[in-house]
Design goal:
4 strands, 6 helices, alpha/beta, 161 residues
Amino acid sequence: MRFTVEQAVFEVLPTVCIGVVVAEGLDNSSPAPDINSLLKSAIEDARALDAAGIFCLVLEGVPDVLAEVITRTVSVPTVGIGAGAGVDGQVLVFHDLLRFHEERLPRFVRPYAHLFDDAVAAVAAWFADVDSGAFPTAEESYTAPEEVARALRAEAGPSGG
């Protein structure tokens, strides 16, 4: 099935803007000489996006005080990912939340489960069952009445092309 979105939909839907502040070398342990200008620039950008008509602003990996100030400054809801508690809402990558992988997690991720090993084992078991023919069984399949199945098979003819 193919879906198409008409241009009129985009004219009716509000604009979504995702704001990401990148401050290379910025961390909580070392002061950056131009941090004030970086933060002020981010606030100006957020105000400009708000004035442009966005309906929400995502703040990713920014200092918590910056997210708090931007949240107080703009008229739209803010959603944070690694931006502290001073935003209107939180978002987190599902695969990080459930620890579906072995990669190093960003400091703002608190995994609530460690499913990587279970996921790998489950996929391996499923593959083995498919490969051996143990999956799917008749109980795990939708069926048609036998007379319909016979007619379909007869109409299709012999297999192989």
